[in-house]
Each structure stands twice: as structure tokens, then as C-alpha cells.
Amino acid sequence: MDNFIIQNRDALIQIYIKERLAKGEGVLMIVKADQKANVMYSRLTDLDKPLRDNVIKLKEENPQENKIYFYLCKDDKSAELIQIDL
Questions:
Q1: With bands split at pLDDT 50, 70 and 90, how would you rate the model's confidence at 1?
Q2: What is the pTM of this model?
Q3: CA 26 – CA 70 distance, rounded (Å)
Q4: How many angstroms separate the Cα of 79 from the Cα of each of 11, 22, 23, 26, 86?
């Protein structure tokens, strides 16, 4: 797992929970570039279809409510969907 997520896990979880309650199901998007990270929440319905389908598949495979999802985009243009247990 990425160091930014490890170091900021509790704060990111709190952001996710607050945004999920306000906006509904979604993914916390983390965009890392030039030693900075921008964090935003995207509702499931607002995600691109391939990412939305990937999240839905993970939710179906792991239906527990204590899972949250981060989508990490790195400055090397790689990205990964991360599932976190609460």
C-alpha cells in the first residue's frame, strides 16, 4: 500500500465516511503528483464505467459494510483501486 495512505489512513477514512454519508456510495480519489496529494470524493454514479464496474464487482465479492474504497492515481500514470477494512 502507498505510504501516503498508510501515514494518513485515519484521516482518509474520516473523510470517506463524512462524504459517503453526505453524498452516498462512492470512492475516495487520491491523486498524487509532485510530492503532493489531492483528495476528493466521487459518487459511484459519477465514476467512469470501467472503474464503477470494478468497484461494484469488489462490493459483490465482499458484501460487508465495513469496507471502503480508495482510488490512487500516481504521477507515473499508474492507478489502483484499494479496498480498506474499517
A1: low
A2: 0.86
A3: 9
A4: 21, 26, 23, 17, 22
